[in-house]
């Protein structure tokens, strides 16, 4: 009889110890004792989103503009047309809910779309439509300081909002001090409409007091009514120079978004 009671007491004690150990284990997990805290509201994981941004004009990746992709507040910037983002998933997004995406660039039309993000690698390739006005030609007359620029806008010539000329000047700011290089910008005036998409602009490059103009390059930036813009650099001699442009200098260099 005593042996049976002893055995029952041992079993009861053993069960109580198991209960205590299970309780300690639960507390340890909840408190992060093992390096992990179980909290359903804070569960998070990452899902990779990668893809290519295609220029609609030639089918190649967009490598001439900075493009910002916003995935519901998480941003990634691409300067090459290729992007990759480790998107932080919340618990409910793990249930494959769509994520809103906005794509913005100074040269391409905005894109608003969405993607259902799975907890794995996700592919998103987008074709962007070029929309910024471009300077397709610019001619400076020598020895005068008069120049023109032909601006093409894919939305139509009426969409061109502003064309700015910029040039470098060497300015004497203090007597007996070396001249300082400064860049100044001035608006160009519309001269005529060439066709449905192109207009010609002109400017007499300004003469500034106590300043000499640089006779190497100048810049033209065209902006449309939606804010898309493109700035280009041209090789040009202003003044009496009859030097020819070096053969290795292109007629137009696009410097928009250059960093």
What are the key terms here?
12% helix; mainly beta; five-stranded antiparallel β-sheet; Immunoglobulin-like; 259 residues; disordered C terminus
Compile the SSE list and pairings.
Layout: H1 2-31, E1 45-55, E2 67-71, E3 74-78, E4 82-89, E5 98-105, E6 111-116, E7 122-123, E8 126-128, E9 134-140, E10 146-152, E11 160-171, E12 180-187, E13 189-193, E14 198-204, E15 211-224, E16 229-235, E17 253-254
Parallel strand pairs: 1-7, 1-8
Antiparallel strand pairs: 1-4, 2-3, 2-5, 5-6, 9-10, 10-14, 11-12, 11-15, 13-14, 15-16, 16-17
Walk me through this protein's architecture.
With 259 residues, the chain is mainly β. It has 3 domains: 1-38, no CATH class; 41-128, Sandwich (Immunoglobulin-like); 134-254, Immunoglobulin-like (Sandwich). Helix content is 12%, strand content 45%. The protein contains 1 helix and 17 strands. The chain has one helix spanning 2-31, and strands at residues 45-55, 67-71, 74-78, 82-89, 98-105, 111-116, 122-123, 126-128, 134-140, 146-152, 160-171, 180-187, 189-193, 198-204, 211-224, 229-235, 253-254. Strands 12-11-15-16-17 form a 5-stranded antiparallel sheet, with no helix packed on it. Strand 9 (134-140) and strand 10 form a beta hairpin. The protein is elongated, with a radius of gyration of 33 Å. Residues 25-43 and 238-259 have low confidence and may be disordered.
């Amino acid at each position: 009889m005593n042996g049976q009671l002893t055995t029952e007491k041992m079993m009861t004690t053993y069960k109580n110890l198991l209960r205590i150990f299970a309780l300690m284990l639960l507390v340890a997990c909840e408190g992060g004792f093992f390096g992990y805290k179980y909290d359903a509201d804070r569960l998070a994981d990452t899902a990779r989103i990668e893809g290519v941004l295609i220029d609609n004009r030639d089918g190649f990746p967009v490598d001439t503009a900075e493009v910002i992709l916003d995935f519901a507040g998480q941003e990634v910037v691409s300067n090459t047309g290729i992007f990759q983002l480790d998107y932080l998933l919340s618990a409910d997004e793990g249930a494959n809910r769509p994520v809103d995406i906005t794509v913005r660039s100074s040269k391409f039309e905005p894109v608003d779309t969405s993607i259902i993000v799975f907890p794995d690698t996700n592919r998103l390739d987008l074709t962007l439509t070029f929309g910024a006005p471009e300077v397709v030609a610019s001619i400076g007359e020598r020895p005068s300081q008069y120049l023109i620029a032909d601006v093409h806008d894919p939305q139509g010539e009426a969409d061109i909002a502003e064309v700015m000329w910029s040039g470098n000047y060497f300015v004497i700011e203090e007597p007996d001090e070396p001249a300082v290089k400064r860049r100044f910008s001035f608006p160009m005036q519309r001269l005529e409409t060439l066709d449905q998409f192109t207009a010609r602009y002109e400017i007499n490059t300004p003469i500034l007091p106590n300043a000499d103009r640089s006779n190497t390059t100048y810049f033209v930036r065209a902006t449309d009514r939606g804010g898309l813009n493109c700035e280009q650099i041209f090789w040009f001699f202003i003044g009496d120079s009859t030097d020819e442009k070096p053969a290795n200098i292109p007629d137009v260099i696009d410097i928009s978004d250059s960093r």
